[in-house]
Amino acid sequence: xxxxxxxxxxxxxxxxxxRAGPHVVTAEEIARFxxxxxxxxxxxxxxxxxxxxxxPDVIAHGLFGLSLMEGLKTELRLYETSSxxxxxxxxxxxxxxxxxxxxxxxxxxxxxCRPSSQPDRGVVTEALELRNQRDEVVIAAEHASLLLxxxxxx
Length: 154
Fold this sequence. Notes:
Largest sheet: 5 strands, antiparallel
CATH class of one domain: Alpha Beta
CATH topology of one domain: Thiol Ester Dehydrase, Chain A
Shape: elongated
CATH architecture of one domain: Roll
Mean pLDDT: 94
Order of helices and strands: EHHHHEEEE
Number of strands: 5
Distance between the termini: 15 Å
Strand content: 35-45%
Low-confidence stretches: none
């Protein structure tokens, strides 16, 4: 028996829900993301500026949160050996700002599952929500992944 937790196309159950996290965001992570991406907008780097715009402190980049969504999902190892590629993100909405100290967790469920034009793979679409400690949705999105079919390319 394999200890591979990967889901292949045949294993996907539309409507099945998964949860991941939590992760507590730090000011250092926000600063490192700004440095890595070269996005030094004052909303992300200057607390006084952020407060002047109605935020309690510097806010995390929206793409920080989107990246964290993918990272939290990856920690579940659902596609450890079955993933071929990310096909993209759709319907991304940044709903509530993320600040240092927020504890975030991920909820996602499978929306669709279908074979692709190539017989060894298929496409899965997920609906994802990144939520904070108050259970507010901070980011909502849909994500499409290309997965192997069991026994056809692994």
